[in-house]
Amino acid sequence: MCIRALSYIGLEAEDLDAWQSFATDVLGLMKVPSDDAGTIRFRLDSRAWRIAVDKGDSNDLTYIGFEVAGREELDAMRKRIEACGVTTNPGSMELRRQRGVLDLFHFEDPIGLRIELFYGATEVFEQPFCSPAGVSGFMTAEQGLGHVVLLVPDVAKSLDFYERALGLRLTDVIDMTTPGGIVELLFMNCNPRHHTIALAGMASPRKLDHFMIQVASIDDMGLAYDRALKAGTRIRASIGRHSNDHMVSFYAFTPSGAAVEYGWGAREIDHNWNVVRYDTTSVWGHHSPIET
Ligand SMILES: [Fe+2]
After folding, report:
1. C-alpha 40 to ligand 1 mean position (Å)
2. Domain ranges, residue 211
3. Where is the VOC domain (predicted)?
4. Is pLDDT of 1 > 70?
5. 174 in a domain, yes or no?
């Protein structure tokens, strides 16, 4: 296993002002000062940035960045990915500068999502993380930024790609009952976080169903829920506990359409984990506003 964590994501949104207000006032992220009018970036911890939002009309996820330990691991991953028949592209000096990493390369996954592998992220310990909304902290470190759930038309193809080319492991499977039938959800890990990537088997013009960030205390999560309600944010799912990672969370729609899961208290996994399956996504809660 060479990939250590999901370290950053890039989104595209038409309304950057709305995204900035949502990210700082509701989610409690720290905006990175910048002169670039076309991109806003946010911090969750000592990293220089974790979430970037570029101005654009796709309103979707545009790239994700996975971290490896160093140069040797980056070279090994490039060879492994190319051996699976995937074309990789070296990162230009300009791209490395934008991302603030020592080196990277990029390629596309089966749904055309740009994946960047890198080492050497920028740390800014001299500028301590300070949430504008008073969040006490986000759970990152060895578990990385959080997780992303991708909408994929062919789950078997995407699973094979993330297992064989990237070396992620299947954690568990949920067969989710929907009005349109059973949807298969596959959860994959690369560190103690229960899942870093999940694949939802459904065709969609969008790549991203939601991304998840995890806070340090249940009060951080509950206070964010209150801020979302007060701000008039569209809630996708009320507070609830997931059956597989045991995360207590709520889901809100971001200004660019995809949802964010705001969670606390997920269990961690280790090398003794056995793959299991579930018939339901939640133990309790996570009701849509229509149900409540
Ligand atoms: Fe999630």
Report:
1. 23
2. 141-285
3. 5-120, 144-265
4. no
5. yes
